[in-house]
Amino acid sequence: MREHSTNGVRRPARTASARRRSGGFTLVELLVVVSIIALLVAILLPSLKRAREQAKLTKCMAHLHSIGLALVTYSDENRQFYPSYWTIGAHSFRVRPNVQTSPGSPPEVWGLQSVLHYGQQPAVNPYTGYAYPLKSDKPVYLPYDSPAWVCPSNPGPRDMEEEWKSWGNTYAYFCNSANNYNADEWATKVSKKSGRYLVTILWDNIKKLPGESGFLGPFGEGYSVRDEDKQAPHQVKGNQKGVTKYKSVLYSDMHVELMGLEQDDLPG
Hints:
The longest helix has 50 residues, at 27-76. The strands form 2 sheets. Strands 3, 4, 5, 6 and 7 form a 5-stranded antiparallel β-sheet that branches. Strands 1-2 form a two-stranded antiparallel sheet. It is an alpha+beta fold and 268 residues long. It has one domain. It is 28% helix and 13% strand.
């Protein structure tokens, strides 16, 4: 081995192989690092996905609660009544006001969004069934373009995801022509057996297609989503292996909770 001198001190010269080893990682070392990174990613990704889904679920519940508070304010100013079946257009799921359900349809003027924004239902032409658009720059109870009207996790029916996003609403409202929509009566309807509130007011819509924009309902079975096209808004990992599918529901006491799709008997 050759020697060289630095400041009078003789040191052995490094060989070529030694110089190569000091210049970077070996192949084995790189493979070990890559394996560790891959393992960490595999461990962390599911947790990150669950955290994102939980954040979306929390946001959805907050949205329903915001709409619920607007409904309470509406009832306080309307003799303790919520918007009725005919007030919202006789269909539980409508698109956002000014949106068209098809190119030949007039803009939407019905729905809970419209009522909470304008504070009233539109006037209807008795001969054509066409409703005249309302105009107001200032929302009365809740703006129709508020983010609260859209669940961040509701994908809509299969193969209709993009169209679903363009409608500006993902929630269905209790819609029954036989009900009097009295807020006080709804708030006192509690199951004697379970102690739970019975009246559901608003929920993640997975069953209904929107009524024809600009026209008063009711609309028939052709406005329902086929069973094979329904997609759950929220998927939560259960105690057992697998995922449980849910929708968020607002009850008459203004609390929000998850409802399993296997127990779902709501119309929307």
